[in-house]
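note to self: dont lose this again. the chain is below, predicted strucutre after it. 496 aa total, dont forget to put it in the shared folder this time
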Amino acid sequence: MPKFPGGALLSGFEIDRGSRVPIYRQIDATLRRLILEGTLAPKQKLPSTRELAIELGVSRITVKSVYEQLVAEGYAQAKTGAGTYISEGLDFESRPKVGLTKQIGQAKNFEISNRAQSIISSKASVRHGATAPFRPGVPALDLFPVKLWNKYWLDAMNCDERNNLSYGQINGSSALRKSIANHLTDARGVQVDPDQIVVTSGAQQAFVLIAFILLNRRDTVWYENPGHIAGRDVMKLMGANVAPIPIDNEGIDLNFAARMHPKPALIFTTPSHQQPLGTTMSLARRLALLKYAHENNTWIIEDDYDSEFRYRGRPLPALSALDRERRVFYVGTFSKSMFSAIRIGYIVVPPGLVDTFAKARNLLGQSSSPVVEQALSRFIDDGRLVEHIRKMRRIYRERRDTLLDCINRDCTDCLVPQKTDAGMHILAFLKNGLDDNKAHRALLDAGIESLPLSVYCIEPINKSALVLGFSGVPSKRMPNLVRRMASTIRATGVHR
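---
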């Protein structure tokens, strides 16, 4: 060990020449750690670049570059003709010992806002990484035409590099908005001007924008109970009074809502395929809901999340198709019809509010890529989206039928499945008083990711069920998975 002030320095060095981390970064990280730990004290002289280079077996240029960076960031001071010293004025006494190479625990005694506390308490599931069987809302990712999509993406990338590599338009590309407008007319019966469409980063951003613009604190929001989890938590985050409205066989219970929570600011509904119960709102109920909204100056969010997948007859026209008073904000997404990672949704906005929504989108983060927007536009215009939806409609029907057959064969002692004519999931009611939360947790341990019906509820509805997504599970895997699910539920045997 060389003789220089602070000669214990080298004991902290471990140079791994086989590491992918460059040597200069290893030296830099070690010196920073020694300084922050207080091992190297203020005013202490560092070895010369030559001495340290020889001792470590590296080039002098490497050491010199590390020293220069430490000086630039204030860790050290270079004194002409005298060498390099640890900076004065670094308050080591008041700071805990820290290390840069490992975590030493979670920070304590911090405060966050009430709004952040609401986010922490949200029951919305965070979906990262690989999907587990029966997770609701997951499309058949294995069947999406990836090679074809990549062609559209590359064509978009090479078409107009200057514009596609920029931030894009604040309400989404004009080409995509026109494509969406045409698709809505053909598929959902909604006549809409492309200028009314605001492209979002999935449906979730659409809910955030609507709540941000339309709601004040303590405004009442009618919300289906049970209903969409993440949308509900967004409304709560904005300080709204989220009023649970029961669902009957025609959809949201309008009479109950008007009697118990009159004159709401906003109504959130999933009329085409109620999430998660699967009810389709009747025409009479749709007309009555629109009439109420018009007479009470109330806005409606129509979450049309998976209406493309209907297995008996044609998809029903959207609620927005009946809206003559422009009270409905139609929200659509491509994460269900195509693939989850595309993260593109949209809102059909009443004309007078388009500019407000576009500016709010820009303020809160316009995260959709112009390249992806252009690729998606051409994918739609060339008929590829409709082609894919038709294919998936056939496959999802087959997967639904297989799941129902498997449950009816192997799970009759513990589950009662509810057949659905649409969507990407079914409800399976638990028998014998089994608690859906406990069943859900047991199934997670077994590698099966259902969701308990209770997490969709603002208030309990005295029903215990599992929400089982079938769209992302190949039919050939269903028998073994259902048998595993049945044995897990039987073994759980937990009651409410």
